[in-house]
């Protein structure tokens, strides 16, 4: 199967080259789809280096629209059979693609979540982020009747069939509960696998904040009531 790695990018000039190198090093037939969400720190100029490189697709937004919007743009520009979502900030390690892909490649799963809370090594950071993630995951599970441990994880891997069966609308971090709600309703086979997590703090460029957490609660409820 051909893998499409979709990477939404916003102001990641210090990490994006290293991240791309790590993705390139993975031993899979793949394309790398880079979507710049109107970066203003020089990231955009770095991505231009990959425009004519084989195996890459580079797309630019003309204004900042959010992670969910960047992912939708990436999804429109891929050709692979299996999609991996990859953040550009080095918090998630592409060397673990094998663990993420195994349940799909051996026919057990349609969707795989890489969980930061299933005993993988992780950097010790913010207690209240941990609590917030648990609250959002628990609330999502209540509405979807799933038993995920990490609904908010970046590492979501799924087949093109899954992508083609749902319509995504959220522009920012609401993508996570929206995607989870919609695949739950379709009764796809979902697996979780443990991953490592090298989290960063706000001085290092972390972008998600408490407002996104409040918005996520709204989206969890909204998609349960409206889908």
TrEMBL record:
MF terms in GO: transferase activity
A Pfam family reported for this protein in Swiss-Prot or TrEMBL: Glycos_transf_2
InterPro entries reported in the protein's UniProt record: Glyco_trans_2-like, Glycosyltransferase_2, Nucleotide-diphossugar_trans
Highest taxon in the source lineage: Bacteria
Ranges of residues in domain Glycosyltransferase 2-like: 4-165
Keywords assigned by UniProt, alphabetized: Transferase
PANTHER family: RFBJ PROTEIN, UNDECAPRENYL-PHOSPHATE 4-DEOXY-4-FORMAMIDO-L-ARABINOSE TRANSFERASE-RELATED
Protein's recorded name: Glycosyl transferase family 2
């Amino acid at each position: 199967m051909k893998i499409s790695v979709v990477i939404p990018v916003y102001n990641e000039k210090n990490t994006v080259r290293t991240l791309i190198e790590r993705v390139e090093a993975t031993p899979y037939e793949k394309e790398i789809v880079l979507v710049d969400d109107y970066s203003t720190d020089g990231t955009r100029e770095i991505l231009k280096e990959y425009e004519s490189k084989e195996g890459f697709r580079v797309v630019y937004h003309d204004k900042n629209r959010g992670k969910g919007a960047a992912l939708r743009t990436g999804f429109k520009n891929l050709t692979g059979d299996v999609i991996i979502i990859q953040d550009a900030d080095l918090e998630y390690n592409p060397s673990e693609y094998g663990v993420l892909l195994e349940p799909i490649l051996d026919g057990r799963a349609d969707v795989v979540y890489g969980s930061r809370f299933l005993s993988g090594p992780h950097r010790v950071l913010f207690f209240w982020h941990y609590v917030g993630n648990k609250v959002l995951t628990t609330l999502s599970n209540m509405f979807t009747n799933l038993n995920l441990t990490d609904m908010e994880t970046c590492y979501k891997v799924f087949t093109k069939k899954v992508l083609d069966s749902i319509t995504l609308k959220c522009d920012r971090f609401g993508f996570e509960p929206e995607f989870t709600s919609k695949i739950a309703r379709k009764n796809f086979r979902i697996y979780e696998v443990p991953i490592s997590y090298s989290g960063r703090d706000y001085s290092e460029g972390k972008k998600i904040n408490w407002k996104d957490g409040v918005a996520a609660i709204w989206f969890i409820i909204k998609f349960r009531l409206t889908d």
